[in-house]
Amino acid sequence: MNRTALVTGAASGMGRMAAQRLAAAGCRVAAVDVDEAGLTETARRSPNMSTYACDVSDPAEVTAVVEKVRADLGPIEHLVHAAALCRVGSALTHDVSEMRRVMEVNYLGTINLCQNVIPAMKAAGSGTVVLFASVAGWLPSPGLGAYSASKFAVVGYTDVLSQELDGTGVRLLSICPPHVETPLLEGIRESDPAVVAGQSGMSPEKVLDAMEKALAKPANPVFIFPGQALPLVLARRFVPGLLRKQIARMVKPTL
């Protein structure tokens, strides 16, 4: 598998695991994150992985890093966009600057990567794009107003993008897992453990397994819901009142 893959959020969590799996499979991997120390650890013992510091919310930085990756490693044939940020707070009192930062990283970061990477894939008539969304983009929950709003935006953008890419040869897949045991979830628990109601998260390895299984098939729906995400999304669609009562009973953040 001698192709070039760009992975964001590669300094930790699922981004790190995705980058390491792709490198182990023989890809030339561009590992991208704002955390340079974390990137160094990710790339340890992976000679076919190169690291690039970049804030995905900055359009100029994303343009520059994509151009650098292409110059260093060749055309980008596979994008895994896992970079994300979460902040806990009340929808009414959460600091607006923090909410803006979450939106800039999670939503505008997604746009920045797509606008810089996908046009060349369209021109080539091939490419694979994996965007990490979240069940939070389908199911809102107290204390996660900023994060849910950003992921709802990612889901909406992805849905439109999938229609625009139809017939271009570029494959788009969006992974929407439930809570996953990553540093992001640890940060939520540190801010207010009641936000996750004492629930443990899904194994990140299983999320990536679901992603790889989906990519191994010739065709899939755009949105993939690993683990308990699918039952939650279906409950939101068909029994929203019952689900809302259950969330109210379980999730009581100290906002």
Spatially, the strands of the biggest sheet line up as 3-2-1-4-5-6-7
Using only CA atoms, what is the Rg? Answer: 18 Å
Largest sheet composition: 7 strands, parallel
Beta-strand proportion: 5-15%
Low-confidence stretches: none
Number of helices: 9
Fraction of helical residues: 40-55%
The quaternary state of the protein chains shown equals single chain
Question: What pattern of helices and strands is seen along the backbone?
Answer: EHEHEHEHEHEHHEHH
How many domain modules?
1
Architecture (CATH level 2) name: 3-Layer(aba) Sandwich
What is the CATH top level name? Alpha Beta
Cα(first) to Cα(last) distance is 48 Å
CATH T-level fold name: Rossmann fold
**Number of distinct beta strands:** 7
Structural class from helices and strands? alpha/beta
Structure in words:
It is a single chain. The chain has 255 residues and is α/β, with parallel strands linked by helices. It has one domain (4-250): Rossmann fold. 50% of the residues lie in helices and 13% in strands. The protein has nine helices and seven strands. It has helices spanning 13-24, 36-43, 59-73, 96-124, 145-165, 183-191, 204-216, 229-238, 240-250; strands at 4-8, 28-33, 49-53, 78-81, 127-132, 170-175, 223-224. A seven-stranded parallel sheet has the order 3-2-1-4-5-6-7, sandwiched between helices. The longest helix has 29 residues, at 96-124. It starts with a strand and ends in a 5-residue tail after the last helix.
